[in-house]
Amino acid sequence: MATNIFENKKFLTDSAEQTKKLGKDFASVLKKGDVVFFNGDLGAGKTTFIQGIMSKFGIKKFVRSASFMLVSEFAAKDISLYHIDLYRLGKTDVYDLGLDEYLFGKGIALVEWSERLTGCKDQKRWEIDIEYKDENKRNIIIKRI
Ligand SMILES: Nc1ncnc2c1ncn2[C@@H]1O[C@H](COP(=O)(O)OP(=O)(O)OP(=O)(O)O)[C@@H](O)[C@H]1O
Ligand SMILES: [Mg+2]
Known about the structure:
Layout: E1 9-13, H1 16-27, E2 35-39, H2 46-56, E3 71-75, E4 80-85, E5 92-93, H3 100-103, E6 108-112, E7 117-118, E8 126-134, E9 137-144
Parallel strand pairs: 2-6, 2-8, 4-6, 5-7
Antiparallel strand pairs: 1-9, 3-4, 8-9
Helix pairs in contact: 1-2
The structure holds adenosine-5'-triphosphate (ATP) and magnesium ion.
Adenosine-5'-triphosphate (ATP) is lined by residues 13, 15-16, 18-19, 40, 42-48, 64-65, 87, 112, 136-138.
């Protein structure tokens, strides 16, 4: 699948299952070294979308973010996926806590609460904004930056 089919697109999902499916479809454009930033309020669906991405890579262990884990690493067949959840932190520079290792490495980094991350403004990345519309509906905007 070409990278650009998800570039600057807006989706509306009606259920968590649909958001997972969108994440799974989106995962097919991801390549080694890619970074995906997620923005959206508590309970918006960031982790749900990431569950879909993980499932595409055959990772079944990923159920949801353990809020006390800053970085969780998941090994797929020939690539590592890093789930990074900055919820518990304030503004954090990418070089603090060694996050650069994950963000500028060979794996795929999936970052929740990425608005808290500073120091990688110019990095090429995917940015996914999830907006709560009602109990089961979400607007999902995918940008390539
Ligand atoms: N269309 C939808 N897309 C995603 N999640 C949905 C949707 N409709 C309902 N939900 C529900 O909303 C919740 C989303 O939770 P999730 O953990 O994915 O959010 P989050 O953005 O990761 O939150 P947090 O900031 O706390 O990590 C789940 O309980 C899910 O079942
Ligand atoms: Mg989450």
